[in-house]
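User: Could you go from structure to sequence for me? I need the amino acid at each position, not a summary. C-alpha coordinates:
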Protein backbone atom coordinates (compact mmCIF):
# COMPACT_ATOMS: atom_id res chain seq x y z
CA UNK A 1 0.00 0.00 0.00
CA UNK A 2 2.81 2.45 0.81
CA UNK A 3 4.24 2.12 -2.71
CA UNK A 4 0.86 2.95 -4.20
CA UNK A 5 0.51 6.02 -1.97
CA UNK A 6 3.99 7.29 -2.91
CA UNK A 7 3.35 6.78 -6.61
CA UNK A 8 -0.04 8.49 -6.41
CA UNK A 9 1.41 11.50 -4.60
CA UNK A 10 4.18 11.79 -7.17
CA UNK A 11 1.62 11.53 -9.99
CA UNK A 12 0.27 14.84 -8.78
CA UNK A 13 3.62 16.65 -8.70
CA UNK A 14 7.27 16.09 -7.81
CA UNK A 15 7.93 16.29 -4.07
CA UNK A 16 10.36 15.34 -1.34
CA UNK A 17 10.02 12.44 1.05
CA UNK A 18 9.34 14.88 3.84
CA UNK A 19 6.46 16.48 1.91
CA UNK A 20 4.93 13.08 1.23
CA UNK A 21 5.28 12.11 4.89
CA UNK A 22 3.51 15.33 5.93
CA UNK A 23 0.65 14.69 3.52
CA UNK A 24 0.21 11.14 4.84
CA UNK A 25 0.25 12.39 8.42
CA UNK A 26 -2.22 15.19 7.66
CA UNK A 27 -4.62 12.84 5.89
CA UNK A 28 -4.40 10.26 8.68
CA UNK A 29 -3.14 7.55 6.32
CA UNK A 30 -2.35 5.26 9.23
CA UNK A 31 -6.03 5.10 10.17
CA UNK A 32 -7.52 4.47 6.72
CA UNK A 33 -4.73 2.56 5.01
CA UNK A 34 -2.72 1.04 7.82
CA UNK A 35 0.39 2.78 6.48
CA UNK A 36 2.80 4.40 8.89
CA UNK A 37 3.95 7.72 7.38
CA UNK A 38 7.56 7.07 8.45
CA UNK A 39 7.68 3.97 6.24
CA UNK A 40 7.66 6.26 3.24
CA UNK A 41 11.45 6.59 3.17
CA UNK A 42 12.00 2.86 2.74
CA UNK A 43 9.38 2.79 -0.03
CA UNK A 44 11.08 5.72 -1.79
CA UNK A 45 14.42 3.87 -1.76
CA UNK A 46 12.84 0.72 -3.20
CA UNK A 47 10.84 2.58 -5.85
CA UNK A 48 13.93 4.56 -6.87
CA UNK A 49 16.07 1.41 -7.08
CA UNK A 50 13.40 -0.31 -9.21
CA UNK A 51 13.16 2.66 -11.61
CA UNK A 52 9.59 3.63 -10.73
CA UNK A 53 10.66 7.06 -9.49
CA UNK A 54 13.74 9.24 -10.03
CA UNK A 55 15.26 12.25 -8.37
CA UNK A 56 14.09 15.34 -10.25
CA UNK A 57 16.01 17.93 -8.26
CA UNK A 58 18.30 18.32 -5.27
CA UNK A 59 18.39 21.37 -3.01
CA UNK A 60 20.84 22.23 -0.29
CA UNK A 61 19.21 23.69 2.79
CA UNK A 62 21.98 24.49 5.22
CA UNK A 63 23.97 21.31 5.69
CA UNK A 64 21.12 19.10 4.53
CA UNK A 65 20.35 17.85 1.08
CA UNK A 66 16.71 17.68 0.03
CA UNK A 67 15.84 15.45 -2.91
CA UNK A 68 12.65 15.86 -4.83
CA UNK A 69 11.30 12.83 -6.67
CA UNK A 70 9.09 12.36 -9.70
CA UNK A 71 7.35 9.31 -11.09
CA UNK A 72 8.59 7.66 -14.29
CA UNK A 73 6.43 6.12 -17.02
CA UNK A 74 7.41 2.73 -15.63
CA UNK A 75 6.15 3.99 -12.26
CA UNK A 76 2.84 5.14 -13.80
CA UNK A 77 2.34 1.66 -15.25
CA UNK A 78 3.27 0.04 -11.93
CA UNK A 79 0.86 2.34 -10.09
CA UNK A 80 -2.01 1.12 -12.29
CA UNK A 81 -1.05 -2.48 -11.52
CA UNK A 82 -1.03 -1.69 -7.78
CA UNK A 83 -4.48 -0.08 -8.07
CA UNK A 84 -5.82 -3.21 -9.78
CA UNK A 85 -4.29 -5.39 -7.05
CA UNK A 86 -5.79 -3.19 -4.32
CA UNK A 87 -9.25 -3.28 -5.91
CA UNK A 88 -9.15 -7.07 -6.10
CA UNK A 89 -7.98 -7.63 -2.51
CA UNK A 90 -10.34 -9.74 -0.42
CA UNK A 91 -12.43 -8.49 2.48
CA UNK A 92 -10.57 -8.51 5.78
CA UNK A 93 -12.30 -9.72 8.90
CA UNK A 94 -11.32 -9.06 12.49
CA UNK A 95 -10.20 -12.60 13.25
CA UNK A 96 -8.90 -11.71 16.70
CA UNK A 97 -12.25 -10.33 17.82
CA UNK A 98 -14.17 -13.25 16.31
CA UNK A 99 -11.89 -15.78 18.00
CA UNK A 100 -12.20 -13.93 21.29
CA UNK A 101 -15.99 -14.00 21.02
CA UNK A 102 -15.91 -17.69 20.24
CA UNK A 103 -13.92 -18.40 23.40
CA UNK A 104 -15.43 -15.72 25.66
CA UNK A 105 -17.37 -18.40 27.55
CA UNK A 106 -14.06 -19.38 29.18
CA UNK A 107 -13.95 -16.05 31.03
CA UNK A 108 -16.24 -15.05 33.83
CA UNK A 109 -19.15 -12.99 32.49
CA UNK A 110 -18.10 -9.78 34.25
CA UNK A 111 -14.58 -9.88 32.74
CA UNK A 112 -15.81 -10.67 29.24
CA UNK A 113 -18.40 -7.88 29.36
CA UNK A 114 -15.90 -5.37 30.75
CA UNK A 115 -13.43 -6.11 27.95
CA UNK A 116 -16.17 -5.87 25.31
CA UNK A 117 -17.38 -2.57 26.76
CA UNK A 118 -13.82 -1.24 26.55
CA UNK A 119 -13.76 -2.33 22.92
CA UNK A 120 -17.05 -0.46 22.34
CA UNK A 121 -15.56 2.65 23.91
CA UNK A 122 -12.57 2.41 21.59
CA UNK A 123 -14.90 2.00 18.60
CA UNK A 124 -16.93 5.06 19.64
CA UNK A 125 -13.74 7.11 19.92
CA UNK A 126 -12.58 5.85 16.52
CA UNK A 127 -15.92 6.83 14.96
CA UNK A 128 -15.64 10.35 16.39
CA UNK A 129 -12.09 10.69 15.06
CA UNK A 130 -13.14 9.55 11.58
CA UNK A 131 -16.09 11.96 11.54
CA UNK A 132 -13.83 14.81 12.66
CA UNK A 133 -11.29 13.82 10.01
CA UNK A 134 -13.98 13.86 7.35
CA UNK A 135 -14.95 17.38 8.40
CA UNK A 136 -11.30 18.47 8.25
CA UNK A 137 -10.93 17.00 4.77
CA UNK A 138 -14.09 18.78 3.66
CA UNK A 139 -12.67 22.06 4.95
CA UNK A 140 -9.30 21.38 3.28
CA UNK A 141 -11.03 20.68 -0.04
CA UNK A 142 -13.42 23.64 0.28
CA UNK A 143 -16.34 21.28 0.67
CA UNK A 144 -15.40 19.31 -2.43
CA UNK A 145 -14.49 15.96 -0.93
CA UNK A 146 -14.49 13.47 -3.78
CA UNK A 147 -17.44 11.13 -4.04
CA UNK A 148 -15.12 8.12 -3.78
CA UNK A 149 -13.50 9.51 -0.62
CA UNK A 150 -16.95 10.06 0.86
CA UNK A 151 -17.94 6.49 0.05
CA UNK A 152 -14.83 5.11 1.76
CA UNK A 153 -15.20 7.28 4.86
CA UNK A 154 -18.91 6.48 5.17
CA UNK A 155 -18.08 2.78 4.83
CA UNK A 156 -15.53 3.06 7.64
CA UNK A 157 -18.17 4.64 9.86
CA UNK A 158 -20.76 1.98 8.95
CA UNK A 159 -18.22 -0.78 9.65
CA UNK A 160 -17.60 0.64 13.13
CA UNK A 161 -21.35 0.84 13.73
CA UNK A 162 -21.78 -2.79 12.66
CA UNK A 163 -18.93 -3.93 14.85
CA UNK A 164 -20.52 -2.06 17.76
CA UNK A 165 -23.82 -3.84 17.08
CA UNK A 166 -21.99 -7.19 17.06
CA UNK A 167 -20.43 -6.45 20.44
CA UNK A 168 -23.77 -5.28 21.86
CA UNK A 169 -25.33 -8.57 20.71
CA UNK A 170 -22.53 -10.60 22.28
CA UNK A 171 -22.89 -8.70 25.56
CA UNK A 172 -26.63 -9.46 25.45
CA UNK A 173 -25.97 -13.17 25.02
CA UNK A 174 -23.40 -13.19 27.82
CA UNK A 175 -25.83 -11.36 30.12
CA UNK A 176 -28.45 -14.05 29.46
CA UNK A 177 -25.89 -16.72 30.36
CA UNK A 178 -26.03 -18.39 26.92
CA UNK A 179 -22.38 -17.92 26.15
CA UNK A 180 -20.97 -21.45 25.93
CA UNK A 181 -20.46 -23.35 22.70
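Assistant: Here is the amino acid at each position, in order:
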Amino acid sequence: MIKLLVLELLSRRPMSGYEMKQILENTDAKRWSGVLPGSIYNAIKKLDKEGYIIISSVEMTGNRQRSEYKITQKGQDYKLLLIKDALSSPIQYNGDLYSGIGFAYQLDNRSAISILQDNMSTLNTEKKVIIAGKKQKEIATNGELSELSSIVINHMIKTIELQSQLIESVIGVINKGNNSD
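One structural detail worth keeping in mind: Residues 61 and 67 are 11 Å apart (CA to CA).
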